[in-house]
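Researcher: Structure prediction, please.
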Amino acid sequence: MAGYRRGSASFVVGIVSIAHFLSHVFLLAYPPLFPLLATEFGVSTTRLGLLVTAIYVPQLLLQVPLGEVVDRIGAKWVLVAGLLLTSLSIGGSGLSTSYWMLLGFAFASGIGQSVFHPADYALLEAVTTPDNEGTGFSVHTFGGYAGFAAAPLGIGTVGIAYGWQTALVAAGAIGVLTAVGIAATTEPVHARRVEPSADGDAGGTIRQMAAFVKRADLLLVFAFYLVSMMALVGLQSFTTVLAVNGFGFTESTANTLLTVHLASTAVGVVAGGPLADRTSFRWIVVGTFVLSAVGVGFLVVAVPGGSLTVAVALVALIGLLFGLALPSRDKFANSVADPEAVGKSFGFFFTGLSLGAVISPVLLGAVIDAWSVSAAFVLVGGLLVAAASVVVAAVYRGSGI
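Model: Predicted structure follows.
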C-alpha cells in the first residue's frame, strides 16, 4: 500500500481508519461522563445506560439498508454524511438542557454510526487486494480500538477539567472538521455498483433484500459476527467484575487488568493483519478463538486465590489472541461478501455484531445474577468455541469459501 495520493490504498486506508477511530470515540462518548451527567440531570444508572443502548438500536435497523445506499451511490459521501451526523449529534448533546434531549441526540448519533461499517469496508475492498487486505483491515480495526482507548482519556479528562458540555461540543467539532477534510481530500474510489430494480417499487426492493439475507453463506458470517461479538463484549464488560467479585482484587487492579486486555488486543490486531495476508485466515480465526477459550477456562480455574501475575498474563494472552483473529475475521467476511453489494454485505454482517453487543451484557448479567461471574465466563468460553465452529462449518460447507 505504497504512496499517499488521494485515491491510493495507503491514503484511503488511513482516512477510513481515522473515521473509524472517531466512530469508536463517539460510541464511548457518554460513559466517561456518567458521574457528571447523573449529577446534572438527576437520573439513575439505568437511564444513563440507555444512552449507550440508544446509539446501538439504530445500527440494528439501518446497517443493511444503508449498505444498499453505499452500493448505489458509492461509499465516500455516505461516510461523510454519517460522520457529519454523528459529530453534530454528539456536539449537540453538549447543549442539552434535559435528559430526554440528550437521549434524542444519542439516538441521532446512532443513525450516523450506522454508515461506518458498510462504507468503511466498501472503501477498503475497493483499494486493497487479496495480498494486502488483511493489513488494511488490521489498520482499520486498530483505529477503532485506539478510539475506545482515547474516549475515556480525552473526553473524560476534558469533562472533569472543563465540564461535560465542553467535552461533548469539542469532540463533535473535531468530528465535523474531519468530515469536511474527508470530503475535500478523498477520491470516490468505491464507484456506483448496482442500479435500481427494474420495477422500481418498494415491494421489489424488500423482496430483493429478503432474498439477500436468506443466503446461507451470508447467514453463517452473520452468525459468526453475532456470537464472536457476544464473547468480545462479555470480556470487555465483565472482566472487572470477575477481578473484583471472583478474584478479590481491588477496583484499581481490576481496571488495570481490563486495560492490559484491551492493549494486548490492539497489539494483536497490528500483528494479525500481515498474518492474515500470509496464511490461511480462516484457520487463524479457528485456532485463535479455540486458544482464547482455553485461556478463559484457565482464567476461571487458575486465578481464584492465585497471583495477580497469572491473571495479567492470562488476560493479556486472551486479548492478544483475539486481536490476532480480527483481521482474519474481516478477511473471512470479505471472502463471502457479494462483490456487487459489498456495502450491503458488510451492513448485514455488522448488524449481527450490533445484535451481539446488545444481547451479551443482558444475557451474561443474568447469568451472573443467577449463578456467578465465573459461570458467565464459562459461557464466554463456550461462545468463542461456537464462533470457531461456525467458521469450520463455512469451510466444509463446500460453497467456495
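Model: The chain has a mean pLDDT of 84.
Researcher: Thanks, that helps.
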